[in-house]
Amino acid sequence: MIPQSLNILIVEDALIIIKQLYHLLSDKQTTLNIQIAESAELGLQKMNEQFPDVLILDIKLPGISGLELLNKVKTEYPSSSPLIIFLTNMPHSTYRYECLNKGAHFFLDKSRDFLLLPEIIDKFIINRDFNKVISYPLISNLCNTNS
């Protein structure tokens, strides 16, 4: 793979998950600029400083939720097209439907799908026009979380 630079913003309030994500994603040949925000409000501030190529969100956050943050991103940055991944311990079909319906590309269960992130990021790096590289069997498997 050709080394490239990628800006990733992780909006997550659980320190152990942040550490795991950082370790998992930093083990790549690509130069990653990983920013961390422990709330949606801090995430918005970081987006104003440097808009991410990849946005990894939790649903349940202090203050406004990850879903509300997604709405703000779509409203305040309508011409942007980051890869949006929800990584949550709340894999209920209602949340899954709402996240995907509002523009998320992936809805991952922290307990089951965590290790799929590097593959998703690799596909995004290879072709930034992510709609052309989504594997439909992969996305259908990730979207059909039993709940």
Briefly characterize the structure.
41% of the residues lie in helices and 19% in strands. By secondary structure, the protein is of the alpha/beta class.
Describe the overall structure.
- There is one protein chain.
- This protein is an alpha/beta fold.
- It has a domain at 6-65 and 77-113: Response regulator (Rossmann fold), CATH 3.40.50.
- It is built from six helices and five strands; from the N terminus they run βαβαβαβαβαα.
- Strands 2-1-3-4-5 form a five-stranded parallel sheet, with helices on both faces.
- Helix 1 links the parallel strand 1 and strand 2 (31-37).
- The longest helix has 12 residues, at 15-26.
- It is globular and about 35 Å long.
- The protein starts with a strand and ends with a helix.
Series of secondary-structure elements, N-terminal to C-terminal: EHEHEHEHEHH
By CATH's scheme, which homologous superfamily of the domain at 6-65 and 77-113 applies? Response regulator
Give the radius of gyration.
Answer: 14 Å
The description of the largest β-sheet is: 5 strands, parallel
Mean pLDDT: 85
Strand ordering within the main sheet: 2-1-3-4-5
Low-confidence stretches: 130-141
CATH topology (fold) name of the domain at 6-65 and 77-113: Rossmann fold
- How much beta, percentage-wise? 15-25%
Name of the CATH architecture of the domain at 6-65 and 77-113: 3-Layer(aba) Sandwich
Number of helices: 6
> How much helical structure, as a percent, in the residues?
40-55%
Class inferred from helices and paired strands: alpha/beta
Quaternary organisation of the protein chains: single chain
Number of separate strands: 5
End-to-end C-alpha gap: 37 Å
CATH class of the domain at 6-65 and 77-113: Alpha Beta
Q: What is the overall shape?
A: globular
